[in-house]
Amino acid sequence: MKSGLRMLGVSLANKIVIPAAWLSGLVMIGLVWALIRFSPDKLTVEGRQLFIASISIFCLAIGYLIWRKRRGKALVAAINLKEGLELDSTQLLGYPNPLFFVFDLSNKKLAQCQSVTGDYQIRDFTWVTDWQFEWQQIDSKVSGGVLQIVDGAGMSIPADEIRRNFIRFSLVLTVADISHPLFRFPMNRSAAEGWCSRCKVLFN
Questions:
Q1: Is this prediction's pTM over 0.85?
Q2: 105 CB-near residues (< 8 Å, 6+ apart)
Q3: In a domain, 120, yes or no
């Protein structure tokens, strides 16, 4: 029960910390620009409080990410020492989520790690049977933006335009485990494509 609550807390923190770092960083940059553009004397008390709060949130978010990274690398180092492996702590699939995978290319092994509890399982590369990156496609119709000439009629009508967006990219691993056959790791598009290419090297 306690470990489950810890995992829930870490998952929620991971979802909040990166947007908080981006937002506080943007606010901090805006206020710094205002200080340079105008003068510190014109900054109101509320503005100064907002500046201090944004700096504090930004530093806390960055500190949390550094702490999570060090904790993950420490777990990988402990596994290498205990199991005699050469897991690469610079390539953590799924970080900063509590569940992540790390790979040993020379021994054809991977470790399925749980950074909250410190638990892990060692698997052969053959445990992974397939990999791919997925995304969600959103099509929206926009009318009236472009005029289309009707042949022979001498008139024009609004043309519909389809705008297509791709969001929610993730790398999906299919494994030889009937209780948990899929592992999905949300990430941006470039990271998903990069990990898909890396999986070809690892598992082929």
A1: no
A2: 86, 88, 202
A3: yes
Number of domains within the chain: 1
Q: Which residue has the tokens 């909250």?
A: 116
CB 101 within 8 A of CB 93: yes
Structural domain boundaries enclosing 56: 2-124
Sign of the CA dihedral running 71, 77, 82, 83: positive
Degrees to nearest 5, angle at CA 87 with 82 and 69: 95
pLDDT digits (tens, 9 = 90+) for 141-189: 766 554 555 555 545 555 566 777 888 889 999 999 888 889 999 988 8
- Return the closest-CA partner of residue 171 out of 144, 125, 123, 134: 134
Tell me the Ramachandran region of residue 12: left when phi exceeds 0, alpha when psi lies from -120 to 50, beta otherwise: alpha
Give domain status of residue 79, yes or no. Answer: yes
Average pLDDT of the chain to the nearest whole number = 79
